[in-house]
Amino acid sequence: MMENTTDPQNISNTLQLQQANSKPANEPDHFLTIRLLMQGKEVGSIIGKRGDNIKAIREESGARINISDGTTPERIVTMVGTIETLSKAFGMICQKFEDDLKQTCTTIPPITLRLVVPASQCGSIIGKGGAKIKEIRETTGASVQVASEMLPTSTERAVTISGKLDSIESCFRQICQIMLEQSPPKGETIPYRPKMMISPVHAPIIFANGQAYQVQGQFAIPLPPNELNAFGPLTPLAPGVPVSAAAPLLPNGLPPNRPPLQTQREITIANDLIGCIIGRGGQKISEIRQASGANIKIADLDEGSQDRHVTISGTPEQIQLAEFLIHSRIASEIGGILITH
């Protein structure tokens, strides 16, 4: 059977393989490609409202930055440039994460980021007998961990660096220098691509409006009642409190002695992005309401404001899923991803 070379997914796969294994013909030898593995919330932070943050990082650093499809829980942030431009971009990303931490924590915890590195280059980061990685830790003060196993269906490993802002910036620069000296990676590199679907065994299940849903990537998939048996007995709510898999459930999926906790949350969304959430004829917002079971109200635009207030009401689980689906839509729209579903 002949492969469809016009299919967007096939083209995307081919491009990722080419980018991971070679440099474009017009790319200087001192240019380097760095891939960061992030959660959707982290990506949303560096993108910012209307894409202001990512635009500033690109312009001020001079690095080329692309973000992978927003339909997966994990995202790949690809940066291309010299060590100087990459370090500038990385520093701005770290600074944004530190600013976020300052808003939520009284004591600032270490900043942690994950690099995705070809396995053949990881050996150079570790060094003979671990000498190089020990040197990096001692000279920068950062924590560096190289995963012993490759990321699923790839020949890449996760390199986790953690520490204070100046420490991980220095650590990142040293790792970039090592990767540049060992570029291109030896052998064929199969890049890690985050999966759209979570394995059914590990995918979370939520109950909303009498229906069980399995959260898979950006979507909540209705789960037939007979398929719940595949997940085994329910986990006890607390030590010594047994839960029967056959226990009767209320319409919201909770045992009868656990009344649903109704609450609400208000989020703010830029007015020029509200359309991607509502969709044509209200289709998208209707899908989010149905999938999450939450009540979602979008307020009118206040005079002189560029933002819209969105109120999400329901159980904490319903609100969490609704907010996740909303932010996934926004991240995909800002990242320039064409959503066809």
Automatic annotation (TrEMBL):
Residues 30-98, 109-180, 261-331 form the K Homology domain. Pfam families: KH_1. InterPro entries: KH_dom, KH_dom_type_1, KH_dom_type_1_sf. One of its GO terms (molecular function) is RNA binding. It comes from the Eukaryota. Coiled coil: none annotated. Gene3D superfamilies: K Homology domain, type 1. The keyword RNA-binding applies. Keywords: Repeat, RNA-binding. This is K Homology domain-containing protein. It comes from Adineta ricciae.
